[in-house]
Design goal:
The chain is mainly beta. 0% of the residues lie in helices and 57% in strands. The strands form 2 sheets. Strands 2, 4, 5, 6, 9, 10 and 11 form a 7-stranded mixed β-sheet that branches. The protein is globular, with a radius of gyration of 13 Å.
Length: 118
């Protein structure tokens, strides 16, 4: 089992920045991919960014150039630095972990609210 705990959400004005953190514990050796997903009201959950164990990263087109995903292996923590935030970035952000061989996330955090005011 893997446990994921997010932190760092909040209310920010458009153009501002926030950094989300996701601390992983448990059987973390099984994790191959860590990602940040988001779900806005009335919309489907979507992938915002992910980082593979090799260090390769992937971003949704809507956040490229503004968001950066990174990790600190010593702290078993993944971060999402969000800059130049827009009102359309408002959503609940979820941390997710995918084990080797899986095609979808196996573990999810509880979510953290990010609200961007115009």
């Amino acid at each position: 089992q893997v446990q994921l705990v997010e932190s760092g959400g909040g209310l920010v004005q458009a153009g501002g920045s926030l950094r989300l953190s996701c601390a992983a514990s448990g059987s973390i050796f099984r994790i191959n991919v860590m990602g940040w997903y988001r779900q806005a009201p009335g919309k489907q959950r979507e992938l915002a960014a992910q980082i593979i164990s090799s260090g390769n990263t992937t971003y949704a087109d809507s956040v490229k150039g503004r968001f950066t995903i990174s990790r600190d292996n010593a702290k078993n923590t993944v971060y999402l630095q969000m800059n130049s935030l827009k009102p359309e970035d408002t959503a609940v952000y979820y941390c997710a972990a995918r084990i080797l061989g899986a095609i979808k996330p196996d573990y999810w955090g509880q979510g953290t609210q990010v609200t961007v005011s115009s």
